[in-house]
Amino acid sequence: MTASAFRSLSVIVLAGLAACQTYPHPEGADWISSLSGADIIILGETHDNAQHHSIQAEVIHRVEPDAVIFEMVPITKTEVADAARARGTDLREALGWDESGWPDWEIYEPVFDAASSSRIVGAGVARDDVHRSMKEGAQSVSNLPPDYGLGESLSQKDTEDLTQMFIDSHCGMITSETARSMIEAQRLRDAVFAMRTLEAHALSPGPAPVVLITGTGHARKDRGVPGVLQQVMPNASVVVVGLLEQGSGLDSSLFDIVQVTKPSEREDPCAAFQRD
Questions:
Q1: Count of domains observed in the chain
Q2: Which domain holds residue 37?
Q3: Cβ distance 149 to 158 under 8 Å?
Q4: How many CA atoms lie within 13 A of 119 on its CB side?
Q5: Can you give the CATH number for the domain in which 62 is found?
Q6: Could you tell me the CA-to-CA distances from 159 to 90, 132, 146, 223, 254 in Å, in that order?
Q7: Contact 102, 241 (CB under 8 A)
Q8: Helix and strand numbers, DSSP H then E, in the chain
Q9: Is the pTM of this model over 0.85?
Q10: Residue 11 forms part of a structural domain
Q11: pLDDT along the chain (276 residues), means of 10
């Protein structure tokens, strides 16, 4: 698969602050205020939706987390990010953002700006490890303890659902075998994101929470990062916010709080596969 097709996948799979429908919990409350008291806040996004990043920036500004954990920042770039901010040098350049394959820096910049008083924690898994997990399985790549669940088999239903999700997100252009290998990469990322979040929480002096910025596919409560957190640290107070696009088809019950925005304007992702 080419790089352009893979970037298109990130838009569909992990598939607007104006014109926003809200479904707050508890009913009728200021939903950001309702995050008070959480240990961990997970903000699931559609990566190329600028409105989602505006909402994330507002949440971070309001809750003042001790740390913000980013799927988009490689683990190896954590110290680089801290050093760049301490020196007042360009964070975009320090992170190598323009070469990373993530959407334009300009839509993520408000999130990093809002986190200026928080520690930045990278959670991005090395590409070599992702590729190895697809060939050898997530457990063979990871040295995480057993309670992270990578040594356990998924249920048949979860396997079938995830297989179909990856086939659909690749516009029907991949085999079931390839899709199943992608499940291993997804599970590896879920576990590593959870691990980095818990490490950040352990270093937090409290009572400020930590915030994880990730795609909605990793944020969903049924089989994403929240499930891993529940296994490893069941007493943690975790709140999951799903930032969804109108027409995404995602079940709102997969999140504690849902914010629905207009979709971003984007090229048909399947066109990239057809060209390639």
A1: 1
A2: 3-124+190-275
A3: no
A4: 20
A5: 3.40.50.11550
A6: 42, 19, 20, 11, 17
A7: no
A8: 12, 7
A9: yes
A10: yes
A11: 39 35 44 94 97 97 97 97 93 97 97 96 97 96 95 94 93 95 97 98 93 97 95 97 92 95 88 66
